[in-house]
Amino acid sequence: MELRTRDRERKLLLKIDATVRKIDDGSYGYCADTGEPIGLARLLARPTATLTVEAQERRERWKKQFAD
């Protein structure tokens, strides 16, 4: 259980570091797939988001389709 928690914390720290780099280089808040702005509500709910809701849903559908 503790190893799982540490792994989750490590992954979150990597996401936070990547987010800070995006803030520094001016690319924060834009979708990695489409380049469109990520909605403010999504960024407030999940500050490390790299995809718009629509792009995230597309990825999840694609993964589900090809995971079978």
Architecture overview:
- This protein has 68 residues and is mainly alpha-helical.
- The chain is 66% helix and 0% strand.
- It has helices at 2-25, 40-45, 53-67.
Structure in a nutshell:
The chain is mainly α and 68 residues long.
Keywords for this structure?
68 residues; mainly alpha; 3 helices; 66% helix; flat
List the topology elements:
Blueprint: H1 2-25, H2 40-45, H3 53-67
Total number of helices:
3
Shape label: flat
Question: What is the string of helix and strand elements?
Answer: HHH
For this structure, the quaternary state is single chain
Rg, rounded, reads: 14 Å
Largest beta-sheet details: none
Strand percent estimate: under 5%
Residue runs with pLDDT of under 50 for 5 or more positions? none
Question: Gap between N and C termini, in Å?
Answer: 28 Å
Number of extended strands = 0
Helix content: 55-70%
Summarize model confidence as the mean pLDDT. 95
The structure class reads mainly alpha
